[in-house]
Write a structure and sequence with these properties.
The protein contains two helices and no strands. The chain has helices at about 80-85, 85-100. The chain is mainly alpha-helical and about 100 residues long. The longest helix is centred in the C-terminal third of the chain and has 14 residues, at about 85-100. It has one domain (about 1-100). It is globular and about 50 Å long.
Length: about 100
């Protein structure tokens, strides 16, 4: 299993050593990289979606921030279309119901 640090938006790998700064963006899609969604502490199932108790709450999880506890997560890239198949099925059923 090859875990990489990559853009959560498009999957472009982060090949530079160290952590991205607040102004760093993905070279492919220009999305911010130092965001909660790219952090090892991000967890949608806990309060404030962050496992780091000392961190200040961040409202916009997909925008660059100044969190001092940011640690770029290493993980496998899964395209967004594959992550939420249940939502896609529900949307298709709703479209059929409404006749779209």
């Amino acid at each position: 299993m090859n875990l990489t640090r990559h853009c959560q938006n498009c999957g472009e790998p982060w090949t530079i050593s160290g952590q991205p700064g607040r102004g760093e963006v993905c070279m492919k899609c220009r999305a911010d990289l130092r965001i909660c969604l790219n952090c090892t502490h991000y967890d949608s199932r806990v309060a404030q979606q962050c496992r780091e108790r000392r961190a200040e709450p961040v409202l916009e999880k997909a925008l660059g921030n100044f969190c001092e506890y940011f640690d770029f997560a290493r993980r496998n890239w899964i395209p967004k279309s594959e992550t939420n198949k249940r939502e896609a099925v529900a949307r298709d059923q709703l479209k059929k119901l409404l006749g779209d």
